[in-house]
Design brief:
Strand order of the largest sheet: 2-1-4-3
Structural class: alpha+beta
Distance between the termini: 43 Å
Number of domains: 1
Order of helices and strands: EEEEHH
Number of strands: 4
Number of helices: 2
Helix content: 10-25%
Strand content: over 45%
Length: 82
């Protein structure tokens, strides 16, 4: 399957940790975007963290759209943090 026909969904994931709950929002591959499914999330250091539960599945986009916009927030920060 070519990348242009792969889809990602905007999801909320939660993980129980000592003292509370961690929450994260991210675009994840559609095949993992299922409510109550437990997944691993890749961390900034390249390691994978297990135990994240998908709690919300929102919009769907082709992977190339997601990748094209993945760093848009950096451009916004450059303008707004002056």
């Amino acid at each position: 399957m070519s990348k242009k026909h792969e889809y990602y969904c905007w999801c909320e994931m939660k993980k129980n940790v000592p003292g509370g709950v961690k929450v994260d929002m991210a675009w994840i591959p559609e095949k993992f975007a299922q409510i109550d499914k437990y997944i691993k999330i890749k961390q900034n250091d390249g390691t994978w963290e297990d135990g994240w539960k998908v709690t919300y599945v929102g919009g769907r986009r082709e992977v190339l759209e997601v990748l094209a916009g993945e760093r848009d927030y950096l451009n916004q920060r450059k303008v707004s943090d002056r």
